[in-house]
């Protein structure tokens, strides 16, 4: 059985006809525009993270990526972990640790090392390689969402993804033309592998995050990430980065940069679950492709970067891809047999065994639209 999308005016029309796209839909769909706008807020936060990191590493020679992550995890711990500690019942910190401590321990390690690998890659490979290879997070998120979250996509979603990646390719080409593709490049293969590893870990973390905030809660996710992230980053800081931290020429400017970085990072971690719940992990990662362009536009004034018209073309290409992706709802297939029948609606209807209780077989979820009564599933 197919459950049509929750649109009051759908009537008796077939569910796959409900997702036809018209230009009027693209312009007048507030949920789609909100989804795109929320993703750009995340991109601006990443732009702030990148700018403060650049000032710290290049102007003040403070190469402390683990310490910077440690500051963020400490903030998450102080705000969200303490919130869990004062809750009662099953939402209490100790109750959560008794049931799922090892799962959050693994997730905390994945999140920490994803950040570390990508930052470390800048020492070995070029900026252009990092920008292109970092897109590997998108197929990782799509595959994991397909198999573990049972999210199903339509042709327009894949078209939007291709357009976004073309926009990134255009930006990389512009970098080559204006000479921004240089990097350390001493061992490019190592750097490229680090980026691919970091992108893979990012994809795992994002999909796991989407699962947690949809079945459990945003505060639980952030509280446990803060707890285990602070613990493991503290250990890694003591082992790998304590000497670099002693070399930092501390003054008020460096302190202000660390505060700015931590504020942007804390805002990103706190706001991203909200956007993922309203859209999806795939949509968020597509939105983050514009972060490099925001950093570039700021760099035109701050660092006197050379400008190319291809950057504007890249920016608007990515936005068009985001609009295409957000214009149509995804859906969750809860029974693969019914999904196979849905893909071929003109084919024969196969009767399922009476003992197989699979209703509802397919549940539609619109991007940017949440149901009023969302099921709260507890996972052991």
TrEMBL record:
Major place of residence: membrane
Endpoints of the signal sequence: none
GO function term, MF aspect, one: transmembrane transporter activity
Sorted UniProt keywords: Membrane, Transmembrane, Transmembrane helix, Transport
Pfam families in alphabetical order: SLC35F
Membrane topology annotation: Multi-pass membrane protein
Keyword Transmembrane: yes
Cell compartments where the protein resides: Membrane
Annotated transmembrane regions: 32-51, 71-89, 130-151, 158-177, 189-209, 221-240, 252-272, 284-305, 311-333
Domain of life (superkingdom): Eukaryota
A Gene Ontology cellular-component term: synaptic vesicle membrane
InterPro entries: EmrE-like, SLC35_F1/F2/F6, SLC35F_Transporter
Function, in words: Putative solute transporter.
Homology family: Belongs to the SLC35F solute transporter family.
Protein name in the entry: Solute carrier family 35 member F1
Source species of the chain: Ursus americanus
């Amino acid at each position: 059985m197919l459950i049509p999308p929750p649109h009051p005016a759908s009537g008796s029309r077939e569910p796959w006809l409900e997702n036809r796209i018209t230009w009027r839909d693209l312009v007048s769909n507030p949920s789609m525009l909100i989804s795109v706008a929320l993703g750009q807020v995340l991109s601006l936060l990443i732009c702030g993270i990148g700018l403060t990191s650049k000032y710290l590493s290049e102007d003040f020679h403070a190469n402390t990526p683990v310490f910077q992550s440690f500051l963020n995890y400490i903030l998450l711990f102080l705000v969200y972990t303490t919130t869990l500690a004062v809750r009662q019942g099953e939402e209490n910190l100790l109750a959560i640790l008794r049931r799922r401590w090892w799962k959050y321990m693994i997730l905390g390690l994945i999140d920490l090392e994803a950040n570390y690998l990508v930052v470390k890659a800048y020492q070995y490979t070029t900026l252009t390689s990092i920008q292109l290879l970092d897109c590997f997070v998108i197929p990782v998120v799509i595959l994991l969402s397909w198999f573990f979250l049972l999210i199903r996509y339509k042709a327009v979603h894949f078209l939007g993804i291709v357009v976004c990646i073309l926009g990134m390719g255009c930006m990389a080409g512009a970098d080559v033309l204006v000479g921004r593709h240089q990097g350390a490049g001493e061992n490019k293969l190592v750097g490229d592998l680090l980026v691919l590893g970091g992108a893979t870990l990012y994809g795992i973390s994002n999909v796991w995050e989407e699962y947690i905030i949809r079945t459990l809660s945003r505060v639980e996710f952030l509280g446990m990430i803060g707890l285990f992230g602070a613990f493991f980053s503290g250990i890694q800081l003591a082992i790998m980065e304590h000497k670099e931290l002693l070399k930092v020429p501390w003054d008020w400017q460096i302190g202000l940069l660390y505060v700015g970085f931590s504020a942007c990072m804390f805002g990103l971690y706190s706001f991203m679950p909200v956007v993922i719940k309203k859209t999806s992990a795939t949509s968020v990662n597509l939105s983050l492709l514009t972060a490099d362009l925001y950093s570039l536009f700021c760099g035109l004034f701050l660092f006197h970067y050379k400008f190319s018209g291809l950057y504007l073309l890249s920016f608007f290409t990515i936005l068009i891809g985001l609009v295409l992706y957000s214009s149509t709802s995804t859906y969750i297939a809860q029974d693969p047999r019914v999904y196979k029948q849905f893909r071929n609606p003109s084919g024969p209807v196969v009767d399922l065994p009476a003992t197989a209780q699979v209703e509802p077989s397919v549940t539609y979820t619109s991007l940017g639209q949440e149901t009023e009564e969302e099921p709260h599933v507890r996972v052991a």
